[in-house]
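C-alpha cells please, single chain.
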Amino acid sequence: MNPLLTLASAAAVILAAITLGYAGLCWISPFKRCQRCAGTGHTTTRFLHRPRACRRCDRGMRLRTGRRIFNVFHRLRTEATR
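Here you go.
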C-alpha cells in the first residue's frame, strides 16, 4: 500500500472525527460560557465600580459558532421550502 495514501486516509479520518465531534458538541450543548465575563454575566470596568451587564452575552452564556452556523442554514432551508 502507498504510504502517502495511508497518510491521507488517516488525516481524513482524524479531520472527520474532529468535525463530527464538534457537531455533536454543538447539538448537545449549544451554549458555552462567555470568555469576557467568565460566565457571570457582569463585567467590571474599573476598580471599586459597580459591575455592569456584559455587552457580549447579557446572561453569561453565548451560542457556539457551530450552532450559529447551523441555525443560519436551518433558517435558510425553512424559508426556501415554504
